[in-house]
Target: 5-bromo-4-chloroindolyl phosphate hydrolysis protein
Amino acid sequence: MEKIKSQIKNIIYTTGFLFRPITPVAFSFTFLLISSALLIFIIFNLDESTKAYQVLLAILTGITASLLIAIMMELYNNYRFNVKRQRELRKFFTTVASYEINIDSIIKSNTKYASGLGSGRACAVFCHLNKIIPSLREVLNKREYLYQAEIEEIDNILCEYNDVIKIIWTGLLTTFMGLVADEAENGFEPQEEQKEPQSAKESYDESESIESTKLNIESLNDYPSLLEFLEKEAMRYDKKDKDTTFYDEAPEYLEYLIEKAIFLDRNVFEGYFEVTDTRYELVKGKTKDPENEPADYNNKYEFQSDMISLACRNIDKSMTKIQRRVKKEPYFCVIASYKERNR
Model:
């Protein structure tokens, strides 16, 4: 019975390809009805022997025939475009259609094994970013097959994801630059020329900079996995040619490292921040209520946790909207309706 229902659904949604987008077809059909009704009304009030009657009858015939052909061509073009769109966006549709299944699976796994990153849908979305983001970036190369509403939601998701990267990047930049500087200094060969003695001020500035770097590194001692990850990557970066852009490109390289950790080794962030639905609800309540002033974040952990939780739930909302659209795609509608079938 389920198989028959699925086949019927596929036939209905495939037929629906004719009417997507509906606007040109609806406009042409509406214009056909209005113009035909107006001409028929005028013709019925004219004598058949008059020249005006013959002219209006010819106009009615021409308009009806041309608009019917235009509607048929529009339906054909719609069907052809949507069939090609489904073939070109198959990977994207698969990712979106299975979104709810994956999120539900991650939530159950996190609940069972008590994930150190957080809990709820927000944490599940963070854990699923490694599947979502590459697929969305790839599909933008085929944006001619996407509808405007889909492009807007994809842009929103990528924007929220960039916020997540920047939030983590801000907290790690000083430490990473200190590690890169240490590795670079250790790797430099001593110059043959004799250096001039440093002034007292220069010596003080250098010692202050070294002390500041040590303090920043020590601040990550509570997160040994994250510190070890940054140290290893700083050593790899040190192997790069030390040209004039060596330090300028290090912050950009850190963004790549954060994404690498999120995609391949997100457990290094355990304890550094948490992603929960509770934090999302609190931040959401503060932003909606004008009487509540924005929180004064003195604690970096609280700020990162709240902002990342907010971004992940916003990503979840946009993905859910896209999934609703995929529910109308034949052959993907069954997977996309997973949550509804399991209620």
About this structure: Residues 187-215 have pLDDT under 50 and may be disordered. The chain is about 75% helix and 0% strand. The longest helix spans residues 148-187. The radius of gyration is 31 Å.
